[in-house]
Amino acid sequence: MSAPGSGPAPPERSDRGPRPGGGGRGGRFERRGEQSVKARLRAKARKKARKKSKKMFARRKVCRFCADPHARIEYKDPKTLRFFVSETGKLIPRRISGNCARHQRQLSLAVKRARILALLPSSSQHI
User: Fold this and answer.
1) How many C-alpha atoms does 57 have within 13 Å on its Cβ side?
2) What residues contact 114, with CB distance under 8 A and at least 6 apart?
3) pTM reported for the whole predicted model
4) pLDDT in tens, 79-95
5) Is 64-126 CATH 4.10.640.10?
């Protein structure tokens, strides 16, 4: 027991309960800015929702060769083929150019043939 004027006695320590400064919420060893798993998941969900709301309307790309039956893919026409070759001399992928799979294959073949005949450069130094 403690003396009558010294205040309440300190609580007895138990081996089972949380220790002062130990684990749990708000302990002194918990790093600042660390979030719980649920909080991180909520933050991810909010970020995903914001990203979705920003994307208003994405127009579907249409293959120009399917849309215009008179447009032809020929290796002898480098002006047309240049639209589908990047500045570094690489073929522009389907997802960017908007071509269908069939016309992208024809296009790659035409670009290869034009490169063989030196109508199109095969490296970025010549562009």
Assistant:
1) 1
2) 75, 76, 78, 81, 120
3) 0.53
4) 999 999 998 889 999 99
5) yes
